[in-house]
Specification:
The protein has 276 residues and is mainly beta. It contains 2 helices and 12 strands. Bound molecules: calcium ion. Calcium ion binds next to strand 5 and strand 12.
Length: 276
């Protein structure tokens, strides 16, 4: 029974170890030695490393050794590995005023380097010393390709140094596959109830002062001319013919009868004769 347990523990240990493609602290125990500067290779326990940097003692995160860059264009890249997973490493700045950028790049089959991530001196708080300022960085490589190399490349620098220590690179296929997280549907941002724009009060249209429709002046009726009744031609009063005055017959002047010499008589008888 003890033997079975021992074998199981041994198998587990081997499988855990096999999960890391690279695991080094640049220590002598890892197969490392000093490199003052310049371009060099280091055949270590993980394989063959390449660099234009320095590998020395002091200012480490662990053990007694680390690798450092202090010029633009300096680099360090890993041995070629198959299907790299997650890369973790520790880095620090050599002084509070360090100012640089280091890219993490990869290439396949010795092709062109492609940038995966970048870090700068400002990403590392100064904690009073380079040793105290070490900070761990994690970069997901997760490439199922074979013959992959990973490089740290100082793309810019104006002050200070970049120190790196304790590098681990997992095996992408051997690592417990991270279950693809069920994508959490994004909480829909509640569409803000659109605040209806305060309606500009439509100005009460001032009704145009109606042009008073001019009271139609009834046309002064042309007074129908009172027909002037024709002045009747007065029928001429027939002038009665002036009667020819019948000439008043001139009574013949009576021949005066000679006045008889009154015979004295009674009087009355006389007048009677006269009237006849
Ligand atoms: Ca170390």
């Amino acid at each position: 029974m003890k033997r079975v347990v021992f074998v199981l523990v041994l198998m587990l240990a081997v499988s855990v170890q096999a999960a890391n493609l690279i695991n080094t602290g640049f220590e002598n125990a890892d197969g490392w030695a000093d490199h003052v500067s310049g371009v060099w290779t280091q055949v270590a326990n993980d394989g063959t490393w390449s660099a234009n940097a320095y590998a020395n003692t002091g200012a480490t995160h662990g053990g007694s050794r680390k690798v450092g860059f202090n010029q633009t264009g300096r680099y360090l890249f890993t041995p070629s590995v198959n299907k790299p997973g997650v890369l973790t490493f520790w880095a620090t700045i050599s002084s509070a005023t360090a100012n640089w950028t280091v890219n993490v790049e990869k290439r396949i089959n010795g092709g062109s380097w492609t940038n995966v991530s970048s870090l700068s001196a400002s990403d590392i708080p100064w904690n009073g010393s380079d040793v105290l300022s070490y900070k761990q960085f994690t970069v997901n490589i997760n490439d199922s390709s074979n013959n992959v190399e990973i490089q740290w490349y100082m793309s810019a620098r104006s002050a200070g140094s970049f120190y790196i220590d304790d590098v681990v690179l997992t095996d992408y296929t051997a690592s417990t596959p991270t279950p693809t997280p069920t994508p959490i549907p994004p909480t829909p941002t509640p569409t803000p109830t659109p605040i209806p724009p305060t309606p500009t009060p439509t100005p009460t249209p001032i009704p145009p002062t109606p042009t008073p429709t001019p009271t139609p002046i009834p046309p002064t009726p042309t007074p129908t001319p009172t027909p002037i009744p024709p002045t009747p031609t007065p029928t001429p009063t027939p002038i009665p013919p002036t009667p020819t005055p019948t000439p008043t017959p001139v009574p013949p002047t009576p021949t005066p009868t000679p006045t008889p010499t009154p015979t004295p008589s009674s009087g009355v008888r006389d007048w009677k004769i006269l009237l006849n």
